[in-house]
Records
---
Amino acid sequence: MDFRFTDEQELLVESIEEFVARNMPEELINEMYETGVVPDALSKAWMDAGFGLMGVPEEYGGTPCDNLTLGIMYEALYEASACFSPFCSNVLAMFDVCAMGTEEQIKKCVQVYTETGEPPFCLAITEPGAGSDNKGMTSYTKKQDDGTFVLNGSKSFVTNGEDFPEMFVIAKDEDPARENKSFSLWIVPIDALGVS
Ligand SMILES: Cc1cc2nc3c(=O)[nH]c(=O)nc-3n(C[C@H](O)[C@H](O)[C@H](O)COP(=O)(O)OP(=O)(O)OC[C@H]3O[C@@H](n4cnc5c(N)ncnc54)[C@H](O)[C@@H]3O)c2cc1C
C-alpha cells in the first residue's frame, strides 16, 4: 500500500497550514480553550476558504472528496493549530442531511451552513451507555394512536447542543432492545417539549 500523499493532498495540507497561520493566532486558540467558544468569524472564514464544503456533494455547492482526504485535512488542521475544533462535526451533520434529508431540509441546511459556516443542527448519536457500540442505544420512538411519535432517551457528547436550534437524533423504532436493528433519524427542535 502506498502511504504517500498525492500532489493535491500535499497542497491541501499546505493550504490548511496557511489558513491556521492567517486565522488562528495562539492568543485566539488560548481564548477558545478558555471560553469553550469558536468565534462565528472563524467558522465563516473556514467556510469562505472552501474547507467547510469539502466532501459535500457538488449539487449542493460542495467539493466531493474521499474520506482519506477529509481525514488528512482535519488532521492537518488539528496538527497546525494544536486545537480540536468543531468544524468537523459541522460537516458530519451536513453529510447526514444531504444523504437522508428531504430537498427542503437539505436546501435550508445548506443555505444556513454556507452563509454562517455552521449548520442549524447538532448531532445527538452517542448515549451514556452507547458510544462505538451503536446497537447498545436505548433511545427509541413509539408511534401513538394519533399518528404522532414520542421519542424517549438520553444523549451525551452533543457538540454545540447548547447553541444550535435543532438536533439530529438517532433512535430505535418502537423497541429499545439490543436485537432491534431498525433506527430512524429525527430532526428535533432544541426547545421541543420534554428536551432538557
Ligand atoms: C470532543 C468530542 C465531541 C463529540 N461530539 C459528538 C457529537 O456531536 N455527537 C455525538 O453523538 N457524539 C459525539 N462525541 C462522542 C463520540 O462519538 C464517542 O466518544 C465515540 O462514539 C466513542 O464512544 P465512547 O466515548 O463511549 O467510547 P467507547 O465506545 O466506550 O470506546 C472506549 C474505547 O474502547 C475502544 N473500543 C470500543 N469498541 C471496541 C471494540 N469492539 N473492539 C476494540 N476496541 C473497542 C475504543 O476504540 C476506545 O478506545 C464526541 C466525542 C468527543 C470526544
---
Amino acid sequence: MTQAMAIKLPRLQNDLLELFRIGYDAESKGVFRMGFTEADMQARDWLIRKFEQEGFHARMDSAGNIIGSMPGQHSGPVVAIGSHIDSVPAGGMFDGSLGVLAGLECMRTVRDHGLHCQYPLEVYAFAEEEGRFGGMMGVQAIAGELTPQWLETAHDANHMLLRDEMTRAGLNALEALNARVDPKHFRAFLELHIEQGPVLERIKKPVGVVDAISGVYKWLVRLIGKANHAGTAPMDMRSDAFMGLADFAHEIPRIIDEDGTDKSRLTIGWVKLKPGYAHTVPGEAEFTLVGRDTDPQVMHDLADSCRRVLSAIARKHNLMFEFEQMSWLAPQAMSDEVIQAFCRQAEALQLDYEVMPSGAGHDAQYMAKITPTGLIFIPSIGGVSHAPDEWTHWQDVEIGANLLLHTALDFARQSF
Ligand SMILES: [Zn+2]
C-alpha cells in the first residue's frame, strides 16, 4: 500500500535548518544566498555532500545547477523534482529550499522502503532563481532558453557582471549553454513550494495545486508636465505630473474590473518625482507599472487599457505620456496530466486541496516548456515570504512532501 508510505519529517526539518545556517545573518535573522555568491556556492557544495552521504550520486552542471539522482530499472526518462536554494537578500528558510530538500527526502523514503522504481528520480537545485541577474538562469540553461549575448552582458543591481561572478565561483558563463538537457530526458517535473501568499491560510486548505503561473510585464512610464513654483503657479494653470499619476492609480481598480480577471494584478511599485522638491510643482513623474495575469489575452487587454487610460489622463492634465516596456513574460499553464496526478494523489491521501494560480514566478515555468510539469503550494503563515519571518507549519511541510512523494512515485511507476 503506497498510502502507508510517508516521509520522515525530522530529517527534512533538520536539513532545512542546516541549510538555513549557510549565509544566515544574525542581525536581520535572514539568509543571504544570492546567486553565485560565496554563501550560495557553499550551499551547493553542502547539498552535493548531503546527497553523497545518503548514498546518492550528485553533481554540479556547467550552469551551477545541482542534480542528485537515484537510478531506476530503466535508464530513462527521469521523473524530476526540484526548486532552488539561492535566496533574496534576508530571505526565509523555505522559499526554494523546501522543494529541493523535500526531493532529497523523497529519495531517502524510496530507498528506506526498498522500492525499485521503473524510472530514475532526479532532484534539481536550480541556480540563480531569484533573479539577481534578471532571469531564472539555472533552469533557463536546462530548458535551452539562454543566449550567449545575455550571458555576456547580464548584471546585477550593483553592476556586477554575471560572467565575472560565475568566474569567481569557478564556473564559465558561456559554458552554461552546455547545461541544456534534451527534453526526452524527462518524463515529468514536479515542484513543491511555499505559496508566498495568503490564500491557502485564508481558506484553511493545506495544499494548492497550481494550474497556471502568471505572466508579468513591466513598464517604465513617464508623465511629463512642467515644473513650476508651487506658490505662484495657479491651480488651473499647472501641468502637474503627480496629479496625472494619482489619477491613474485611482483608475487601476476600474481597469481590472473592465478588462481583467480575479487573477489580474496591476502595481505601481516605484515612483520618482522630478525635480522632487517640496515647493515645486512636479514636472515629471516616472514610475514602474507591473501587470500580471494567467491568461495571455487578458495580459494584452490590461496593457491596452493601461495605455488608453494613461493617454486620456495625460490629455486631461496637459502632460506628455511615454512608456518603455522593460519586459514581457508570458503566462505558463501547468500540464493537465501532472495537475490530475497531484489531485488524484491528494484525494488518496485525503487532503483538502485548492486548484489555484501562482502569482509569483517559479522554476516550474521554464521546465513546463520542455516536459509535463506541475507545481504545488503549502500555506505561508500570514502570506509572508522573501523576508526573515517567512514561516510554514511543520505539519504542512510534511503534507506537501508526502504529496510530492506519492505523485513522483505515480510517475516513476514503482514495481516491487
Ligand atoms: Zn522560490
---
Amino acid sequence: MRPGHGGEIDGRHSRQVELDFSVNLNLLAPSVSDALWLSWRKELSVYPPPTAREVERRLGKCLEVEPQQLICTNGGTEALHLGLSLFRERLVNLPMPCFAEYPFLAQQLGQETQLHVLEPAQWQVPEAWLYFPFQPGSVVILANPNNPTGTLIPRELLAARIAETAQIGVTWVVDEAFIEFTQGALDNSLLRLLDEHPNLVVAGSLTKTWGIPGLRLGYLASANAAWLETLRDRQLTWPLSGLAFPWAREFLSPETHAATLSGMEHYHIWRAGFQQLLEQSRLLDPLPSSCNYFLCRVAQHLLPATQLYAALLEKGIHVRRCDNIPGMTGDYIRLAVRDLADVAAFMTALNQIEERL
Ligand SMILES: Cc1ncc(COP(=O)(O)O)c(C=O)c1O
C-alpha cells in the first residue's frame, strides 16, 4: 500500500490547515517573486532540455561534487527509486524506524527486505543503526539524519562501517535529505568522501532546504562509474520539468546556497526553544534531534496520541502522527521546527488541551 506522509490528512492534502507541523520545509528558503514567476510561464509551452546536465553542473558547484558524479532527478524519492533499482536482485536491509517510502520502493522494485527494528532506547545511539549482521552482498538503505528520529550518525563512524562492510560486498544507499539542517551541514555529508567508497550511493533532495516540494528536485551521487553509467542509461528523456531549469538558473549558485545554509542557524535556536517549552508540558516529552523536526512521546494515559492529533487538528494545527511510520508505535508524534510565532500558537493550543484534561 502507498504510504501516508506529513502534509496529508487521511490520504488527502492538508492545504486547509492553518499551521502545518507535519512537514519539514525550510521556512527561510528564498522565495520566487511574482515577476520571476511570470517570466517562467513560457517554459510550460516548450520542451525542457532532454537531460539534467545543466542543473547537475549548477548543483555540483553548490555541493562541491564533480557534476559527472551527480544525477539530478524529479525529487528525492525518484533518486531513491533509481538508486535502489541498481540492486534489483539483492536483499535490502531496512534499519527502522525509517522514511515510509523505503519499504514501499523495495516492494515496487520486487526486492526482498530484511527489517532491523531498533528499540526506542537505541534511537539516539548512532552505532545502533549500523551494527546489524548484514548479509554478504546485500544493500542497506538509511537516512542520515534519520527521519523520524532526527539522529545524526557522525560521518566518520558511518564511513568506517561502509568501508568495513565493503569487504563482504555490502552496498549503501544513504539518504541525506535533511543533512543541511544539521549543525555543520555538509561537513556531516558523505559527499566529500565519495571517492573513497565505491560501494556507496548518496541520495539527496532539494525539497527541504529550498522549500520546493512542488518543483520536484533531487539527486544521486556516487563515485562508482559503472553505476553512474547504468543510471544515466536508465534515466528517461526529459527527467526534470521545464520549471526546474529557470529555478536552478536563478537560485542554484554557491552564493545563494551559502546564504540559505546560513539561515539554518535559526533552526538550531528555534528547536532548542521549542523543546524547552515542551519540557513543561504534561502531555509531550520531546526527544533530542539534530535537525528541523523531532519526536515527542505522548503521555498516553492522559490523552492517547490519536486524540491529541484530532484535538490539535480541530484548532487548525496539523502534526505528524507516527502510527504509519515503519518501525514506530503510535505513542509518538513528530513536530517540525517552526518560527517563534508558530511555536507560540502551538503552545497556546497545547496548553488549552492540557487545561481540559
Ligand atoms: C528522509 C526523506 N528522504 C527523502 C524524502 C523525499 O523528498 P522529495 O520530496 O524530494 O521526494 C523525504 C520526504 O519527506 C524524506 O523524509
